[in-house]
Amino acid sequence: MGPYRLHMKTKTAPYAATKLSDYTPGALDDAVTMLLCAVDSEAAALEDESEWKAFRDRWMARKNGILTQINDLWLKPAPRDAKREVGQRVNEMRSRVEDTVEQAAERCRQSASQAHLASDWIDISLPGIRRPLGAEHPVIKTMNEIVSIFRNLGYSVEEGPEIETDYYNFESLNFPPNHPARDTQDTLFIGQQDSKPLRDRLLLRTHTSPVQIRTMEKLKPPIRIVIPGKVYRKDPPDASHSPMFHQIEGLAVDYHIKFGDLKGTLDHFIKALLGSTVKTRFRPSFFPFTEPSAEMMVSCFICGGSGWRAADPCRPCKQSGWIEILGCGMVDPNVFEFVKQNGYDPAQVTGFAFGMGVDRLALLKYGVDDIQLFFQGDVRFLKQFG
Ligand code: PHE
Predict the structure, then answer these.
(1) pLDDT category, 3, cuts 50, 70, 90?
(2) Do 152 and 69 fall into the same domain?
(3) Using CB atoms within 10 A as the burial measure, which of 10, 123, 205, 317 is most buried?
(4) Closest ligand 1 atom, CA of 355?
(5) What local confidence, expressed as pLDDT, does residue 12 receive?
């Protein structure tokens, strides 16, 4: 053997109860000591609850547990004069064994819960998980600003479906079937509807104007409403186009509405949105559902109308000093014909309507150069508006 000894754990045969050949007090002492040593060392080796259960049964099972065997092997065959002494020893031993089994149970339970804690602990000194605060999306923010300007003028808010019928999106707005004006709006149609009459066929609304008709079917004149919402067109996405974008529509119908009311209202609106220094200008245009129709231009609020930003040409207004903001016009009497039975007799009522693209206004307002950024959901972009 070298200088080092390996400590070898030797496996001894498990304790087994045997008959006593000698009932003298010394022999009894030895037998009891051996048994108690065995139960103690077995208890010390237990590692979990299932081992403990086997251990308990081995010693205490009523049927063939070691304690029961001791009764049969030691007590029953004891000579008369030793019976009392043996009975007493066996009873003491039994309660020692019971205590040992009980304590072992407690230890196994504790080590199980410690193992559980070790694998599943929580460091309460770590910082918590911070939920990032959301910010209002720049398009929604712009929309809310526009809507609130009109609310202050006494307008209320109406909404309508994004999946619309041909009737509301086109026909009732004075786009007759097959009329070339329909081609100005690259429409996304919903397929497999050829069996339906044209007016019932579904499409994604190309503008918020169908809600004009829906509202006039519902409410009698006079009305003042704005209609914010999403619209869809078959435009491939690029820096200034998106197949989904946002509009706000406006409609005022009453008994004495004139073109001057339209001009005054929209001039007030754009000054409230962009500041009182901007100027407005109206240019003739065409929409099937307004007559006359116009486009409102606003003096460029990026370059102040000069067409230049220091030494650089102003890109948003293409150096013209003017930016086109919205389409508008006096409601065409043909449109009122579709809702005549609800009080909109074209001989009695007049009105104006307007519609603007919110995304483009938000682009200009926040100096963003790509509309796609609005819809990619990149938090690094959106956070800047918080
Ligand atoms: N709906 C028109 C468009 O999307 C805008 C518009 C609305 C024009 C109301 C006139 C009146 O282009």
Answers:
(1) very low
(2) no
(3) 205
(4) 7
(5) 65
State whether the beta carbon of 209 lies less than 6 angstroms from ligand 1. Answer: yes
> How many C-beta neighbours within 10 Å does residue 153 have?
14
**pTM, to two decimals:** 0.69
213: domain range?
Answer: 138-161+208-385
Largest Cα–Cα separation, the chain? 132
- Check if the beta carbon of residue 226 is closer than 8 Å to that of residue 155: yes
Residues 156 and 303 in one domain: yes
**Strands 308-309 and 312-313, bridge-based pairing:** antiparallel
Let me know whether 150 and 49 are in one domain: no
- Please compute the mean of the pLDDT values over residues 328-335 and round it to a whole number: 98
Ligand 1 pocket: which of 227, 257, 287 to mutate (most atoms within 8 A of CB)? 287
Q: Name residue 308's beta-bridge partners.
A: 313
Q: What is the dihedral of CA 259, 262, 264, 269, to 10 degrees?
A: -170
Ligand 1 atom index nearest CA of 207:
4
Is residue 353 in contact with ligand 1, taking CB distance under 6 Å?
A: yes
pLDDT digit string (tens) for 129-171?
888 777 899 999 999 999 999 999 999 999 999 999 999 999 9
Residues 145 and 106 in one domain: no
List all residues 6 or more positions away from 231 whose beta carbon is below 8 Å from its beta carbon: 162, 204, 205, 206, 207, 208, 244, 245, 246, 247
Whether residue 170 lies inside any domain: the answer is: no
Total domains in the chain come to 2
**Which residue shows structure tokens 């508008």?**
328
For residues 248, 253, 259, 260, the Cα torsion angle rounded to the nearest 10 degrees is: -90
Ligand 1 contact via 287 beta carbon (within 6 Å): yes
Taking alpha carbons only, the member of 117, 60, 131 closest to residue 94 is 60
Residue 279 lies in a domain: yes
Instruction: Strands of 116-173 (E only): list them.
Output: 156-157, 163-165
Residues 3-8, mean pLDDT to the nearest whole number: 48
Q: Which residue(s) pair with 156 in the sheet?
A: 225
